[in-house]
Design goal:
The protein contains two helices and no strands.
Length: 64
């Protein structure tokens, strides 16, 4: 295809479709923040040890 024709088609497409990079950048930033929060949350939950619960011994009822 003629390079001049490609440029004309691209210019016509850009005039007809008002496309901006703003929404794509906003979505990318939101995804990056989400991944960062999930990684930090996973890192914090792995480093804090769970507290052990000691069982309470049951005392047998005295035999009558």
């Amino acid at each position: 295809m003629n390079p001049n024709a490609i440029q004309k088609r691209l210019a016509r497409l850009q005039r007809e479709c008002n496309v901006s990079a703003g929404p794509a950048l906003l979505l990318s930033a939101a995804c990056a923040v989400l991944v960062l929060v999930l990684v930090m949350n996973a890192g914090l939950s792995d480093t804090t040890p769970a507290e052990a619960v000691t069982p309470i011994p049951k005392i047998a009822a005295p035999a009558a």
